[in-house]
Amino acid sequence: MNEEVVVSFLAAAIRLSVPLLLAGIGILFMSRSGILNIGMEGMVLMGALAGVVGAHYYGSMEAGLLASVLAGAFIGLVFAFLVVTTGADQVVIGTAINLLGLGLTTVFGRSLLGMGQEAVQAEGIPVIPIPILADIPYVGEALFHQNLLAYASFLLVPAAALLFYKTNWGLQVRAVGEHPLAADTLGIRVHKTRYACCVIGGMLAGIAGCSLSLGILNQFTENMAAGRGFIALSAVIFGKWTPGGTMAASLLFGGADALQLRFQSFGIQIPYQFMLMFPYLLTMIALAWFSGKGKQPAATAVPYKSLSNRSE
Amino acid sequence: MAQEMRATIHESLERKLNVLTDIVFYAGSVAIALLAGGLVMLVAGVSPIEAYKLIWDGAVGDANGFKETLVKATPLLFAGLCYTFAYRCGLFNIGAEGQLYVGALAGTVAALYVPGLPWYVHLPVCILAGCAGGAIWAGIAGFLKVGRGASEIINTIMLNYVAIYLVSYMVTGPMKEPGGTLPQTARLPDSALLGKLFDSRLHYGFLLAVAAAILLYFILHRTVWGYEIRAVGLNKQAAKVMGIPVNRNVLLVMMLSGAIAGIGGYAEIAGVQNRLFQNFSPGFGYDGIAVALVGGAHPLGNIGSAILFGGLRSGANAMQRMTGTSTSLVYVIQATIIILVVCNRYWFGGLKKRIIASLTARVVGRRSDARPEENVAVVLGIGEREGRS
């Protein structure tokens, strides 16, 4: 293969890993506070639709991005209410959110944006070459010719790491995820922390959706998340519940996706289905490998009833 | 003695009222979800009344519609039972979708590559192969749970995608119909197909599913093994202390749960589609979760809820043909039902307790004033059968 192919592969790998990374960091926020979100797929879909609807009806990609963030925050809030306040089972609610996301976006996608060839095209998120860096041969073309969300998502990784490991709030989040009762006795508001993490996670899910619809295709297509919500969950697990690990796993899975597309177009004989299985298989191996080593926050998926509310 | 008697009567009555109020609240949840679906239609610019009329006519309007409802209910019932069985053992098997696919794949392999058998041998062999496929697929998650402590929730989800891509690979590659252009296998031989009922699309798979529900009911509620399973589901620690082999049960339950979904997958191929192709299931496995929850995680309750959701699906197909509103509307209704049922205790817990308390007081008070206690027992039918624990 020549250099051009390699450069375009790298650029595509990064482009395809952006939605995974954004959704993954979103899941990470929830996971760290002890909430298992298998509803990411549905949240990403809602963000994707909201982005195109916002961009189409208000005529700018900024409006689309804002709509995605708001839609994500709203669904995050609903999710938080269901799993934190009512203490409902997180797995089941997550599944419901996936169904809701698929159902609502398909019905409204058709009625608001049309379908097939006539589907609305919206203003996409602009590609901004970074001055100087973009002129570096090969690397510049691949890494610094990306859209705004791509840069933002990679900047999010150190930001999240700082937040989790260097701030008081990050410590509180981790405490809530590991041992909510202990956190509660120390005066940390468990429910409030979990709500905050869910809303942040929801917003990131919305942006992830936007990065799919406005960032890659400039339109909404039915079920366009195509399992990426679950791959993001894989990325978090494979990344051992850390921001850096999540980023590495997102790049790996995004790279597999980009490679798979190239295999198909070059007619290479490795069946593309095996490339598509790769993230899921790797996650299962990783999960079997880590288990018992205490990587997953201990209180994952366990509802918590706060001390002040236990008067039954 | 009289006091004890009264206490037993009280308990039994309470249990019955509990089931009764549950049914009322579940029905209420379904009604609210239908309203929510109507709201979505309204916003999407379709008249909900007209759409629901189309759904109703499509689902139960005539004999053919109702048969189609049962056709759709068949895989839903298998998937619901798959989730129910694992759930009663405290396991979350979110992998019915993948197990359906692998079951269908394994059954199809047996159907296409074991030729020359009479149907009464071939069909059972294919169904057993479907069973084995589903059991192995779920067994992987069960094994990783027991052996490595890995979450069966995550693993079953991951295995769904692996299964879908595996089937996609098989039908575009090794198992593709010789000479065909579409990504699908050859037509299954007649000896491997499930017979049709009443000259319609309805096939014997539906009866198999109902039989599976009844069998599961007996296993769960009438055998020692079922008691063990439910004990593990209620409290793993306590079950272990009682000497119940928790790990063995977890593995076996996962495998049997997968086996049920596996038959469901093969039944859909051998009863409806006649050949295996990509994405033959529009998410039946995930719908199974809603079926199980609305069915009260009870095998027999699953039959009713599978027919309800089957009706929604077949009705929604009719609606899509007439109005162009996507069948995906059904997902919105399903999701709302799931949310309402799961949060049932939060919304209605207090109300339910009060209703039961006041009804119990009224019935026990009145009856025991009027008759001897023994007769009350007869009136209330105590001792007929054990209730659910």
From TrEMBL, chain A:
It holds the Pfam family BPD_transp_2. The chain crosses the membrane at residues 6-30, 42-59, 65-84, 91-109, 148-165, 195-217, 229-253, 274-292. It is found in: Cell membrane. It is a multi-pass membrane protein. Coiled coil: none annotated. Its main location: membrane. Keywords: Cell membrane, Membrane, Transmembrane, Transmembrane helix. GO terms for molecular function: transmembrane transporter activity. GO terms for cellular component: plasma membrane. InterPro entries: ABC_transp_permease. PANTHER family: ABC TRANSPORTER PERMEASE PROTEIN, SUGAR ABC TRANSPORTER INTEGRAL MEMBRANE PROTEIN-RELATED. This is ABC transporter permease.
TrEMBL record, chain B:
The chain crosses the membrane at residues 23-49, 69-88, 100-121, 127-146, 153-171, 202-220, 250-269, 289-309, 329-348. InterPro entries: ABC_transp_permease (IPR001851). It is a multi-pass membrane protein. Its main location: membrane. This is ABC transporter permease. The keyword Membrane applies. It is found in: Cell membrane. GO terms for cellular component: plasma membrane. One of its GO terms (molecular function) is transmembrane transporter activity. Keywords: Cell membrane, Membrane, Transmembrane, Transmembrane helix. It comes from Paenibacillus soyae.
